[in-house]
Amino acid sequence: MSEIKTIGVAGAGTMGAGIAIVCARAGFRTRVFDLNAQSLERARGQTEAFLRKSVERGKLAAEKLPEIMNQWQGTTDLADLADCDLVIEAVFESLPVKHDLFGKLNQICPEHTIFASNTSTLSITEIAGGSGRPDRFVGLHFCLPAQLMKLVEMSPGLATSEETFNKAWAVMEAMGQKPVRTQDTPGFVLNYFLIPFNNDAIRLVEQGVAEAADIDLAIKTAMGYAMGPLELLDLVGMDTQKLLCEAMHGVTNEPRAACPPLVKRMIAAGWLGKKTGRGFHRYTDSKMFGA
Q1: What's the topology of domain 191-275?
Q2: pLDDT digit string, tens, across residues 250-266
Q3: Is 63 a catalytic residue?
């Protein structure tokens, strides 16, 4: 087991909430930070519901549920992450926002604390450059939904020390995740393919080729995916997809990575996906995927 005992997760959205489950379920003290108290309440409720469903399915011993929930602590005060040995950032894809967050954390956390970003498109080296500790910074890209997916893409920045990378790798293995080492390049492995692929699915809807439900069914049936691309986009959120596209297209100029106009119209309509009850599909609950 790694010497890392307490982990902070900055951001209680879909991604952050899933990462926090992975951390707490593995026995780490988990501090979940978000400026919005309602987001923290929602994440905690979703976490408990997900774990209860895991108990019902025989994937988790009933006595473990309260133990895991006791490990999970939410806060709206960034200073409460001062005792963390590792802080994983899971806020939206904006370099200035990430720099601001890590700049504050650098003043709060002790020198040994490792910083990590869950970014899927931005440069780890660039984010680390605003952290105050680029040698103790690493990319940890969990896959959505994090509470179910085992893969973590681990990317060192140019200044990341091998000691930092190895410590983070050991933590991922202690969590039961499957880390893979990637270079600090746009999209790493998964999103290099996934962002253009998902945009292609959106353009099929734009062009009237097929309905969203039929596109998802075709992909799942033919390719064996557990989730269709438009279902995944609803889970990601249209607002997040727009940021992902802008970040990746901005550094690659890949035409297929450009944000489809339909995404922007859906954002204007408030159709962000599962979190607002409507995206490419309609939703009547706010449960986590798998709950």
Answers
A1: N-(1-d-carboxylethyl)-l-norvaline Dehydrogenase; domain 2 (1.10.1040)
A2: 889 999 999 999 999 99
A3: no
